[in-house]
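One-letter codes give the sequence; the integers encode the fold. A sample entry reads:
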Amino acid sequence: MWHLRRRVWLPMPVGLLLLGVACCATAGLAAQVSKGPGDQAIAVAVADGHAGAFVAWCETGVRQYDVYVQHYDASIHATWATGAVHVTGAARLIDTYDMPALVADGSGGAIVIWTEYNLRNRSGQILAQRITGEGHALWGTRGIVVGEGTVCEPRAVTDMKGGALIVWGPDDLHLQRIAADGRACWPNGGIRLGVGGVVQVSIVPDGKSGAIVGWVDGRRYAELMIPDTDIYAQHVDASGRVLWSGGGKQLGRHGTLPSLNASDDGGATAAWVRTSGRPEQAIFAQRITFSGVLVWGDTGVVVRHSPSLWFLREGAVAGGVAAGASAFWMEVRSNAWQVHAQWIAKDGGHSDGDEGVLVSDGVVSPGLAVSNGRGGVAFAAWAHKETMAPGAALDYARIFVQRFGANGKTQWRQGGVPAGAPARGAGRPIVVADDGGGAFILWYAGVTAGAREIWLAHVLADGTAAPTNIRLGEASR
């Protein structure tokens, strides 16, 4: 998911077709998620388990920020005829917002989690609402309060029983499990993971109704005044037991912008950018088992490293299976950003050379997103710079997506599949695997400064776009 303002915790969070400054949709390519009068700033998506997807987004109103949820079928048709569900309600004033989180409930519905923060009394709350597949709210008109105080940017995964595991910070890292009926499973505001001042938090399911939480940790800076950060993770089981002692497992040193990915054995695979400790940057990866064993040594394995490379970013990993995982990153070559991929074998080795495989060049940065599919499949999406007619604006880009098999090899056409036509300001995609081997892609684009729009596309398992002749806009509201 991506955050467009304030602190970035992860990636994680939309398809657009713009010619000049006019909006239009292209049959079989993309549909506009929202066409409200405000700024549609950030969005998240999750597959519904039945070939469709839920999308949640933040939108500026006259005096507040609002969070909406809508459901789309495989052909990008909004299925709720009454419009998107306004989960924050019209009566409350929210001074600022964070990226919402979205979890499928396993019964055709979804749970949306968001932050409400009032600057006047400096108070904040994490709230959650469960929405059925028909668009009905189950947890009251306002939802339920998950956490209070200095709260920021919740992240969530399914508990595989109709509820969700929700983590938030930043001063104290907390984890709470919410049951399918909206009941908090753990008392006193959830489980405190024993660390503060963390950033870039992520969470993945462990396959047994628990979760593994990863973050960038500044404890060495706080204790020794060393300006450096490390990558940590902690495992909490379904009953709320913290399984790894010592304040979590250190996955690696000198890191930032981590990506955490669930492995099929209940553990996790992580990737991060090393930005200190040595003058040059590098991409590292680590694998940790369900019980907390570091598979790839105490500091992880080097995925990409070169003394001549000073600009590496957005190291990410996806498709974790027993045989290995796919790693992705962006780097600068010939004054242009490129997307690269590398298959990491189960022993931490890789066979694609130090540079990996070139996925795409001419990429807009930042803007790399990855996602798990079934059976070790991975997806990557990015924004590619586009050359328009002479005299046209220079900030046009097009969103592309590529599928990688369980062996790390590309499975769709070379250069990826376009998710929409070139658009002004298109960028920061989010990719979410569907339940049939394809993927939904969200992204935003700006028609004018301060007025962004959110778009959605669906690419099927065979690498073709889902057919649709409907332009979504007011219909989704």
